[in-house]
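Our preliminary data section would be incomplete without showing what the modeling component actually yields. Below, a chain of 270 amino acids is followed by its predicted structure, encoded as tokens that our downstream tools consume directly.
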Amino acid sequence: MWWLYGVKIGSLETFCRMADGIFFWGPVTSKEWCEPNYVQSSYIAEFFNTISNIPCIILALIGLVNALRQRFEKRFSVLHISNIILAIGSMTYHATLRQMQQQGDETPMVWEMLLYIYILYSPDWHYRSTMPTFLFLYGALFAIVHSQIRFGIGFKVHYALLCLLCAPRAYKYYIHTEDSLAKRLAKLYVATLLIGAACWLCDRLFCKQIQGWYFNPQGHAVWHVLMGFNSYFANAFLMYCRAQQREWNPKIKHLFGYFPYVKIQKPKTQ
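Predicted structure:
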């Protein structure tokens, strides 16, 4: 019976900390989501919003191994690594609910979008050094400013504009892709984005109603899982398009019969 006693003491200890407003990571200084704090663990503020980033890390590792094994351009290895960094930043933010960790989540989000802009537009950019230089300086300036200023709604607008910049080029790649399996990757990307966005909005807009339900669907955690798949599908589609540009004869294969990945066959001269 000692373990029952331990659970009761641990639960009482957590309850007392919550009642006093004192938590393991200190007072909440960042935006909160529709998940009660420190319920599942006294060391993790938003438990489900934290662990839901794990699929993103696993999927990014699969993509990274494929990019390295087939010797894709380094930009794709960096892209997969940025997905991992973003997921870790999100984990630390939701685990602590501290402002610094929130900025550590949001800044990699902007960096990742700048990387997507580079990958999408660089093949047709004639001044090769100007784009990476500008994007690097822009990302560095944003990180400095964001470390000092809390943007709130301004960050969301800024991030949405960066996403919109990617849309025309991504659509151009889609309409010029003939392979049905590759097009399916793009469709899965859009589907996971729309479903994930709906979960995000419902969790944000109807939090008070959700908190009265017997079961919390954890919409923000579902958003994290779907965005992990979303990033994986986007990266695989871009790898396919780039392989087509380089005439590497890309094919869509499936790992374990489920996870799509790009298999290429480079000419012997490359």
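The radius of gyration is 21 Å. The chain is about 70% helix and 5% strand. Preliminary results of this kind motivate Aim 1 of the renewal.
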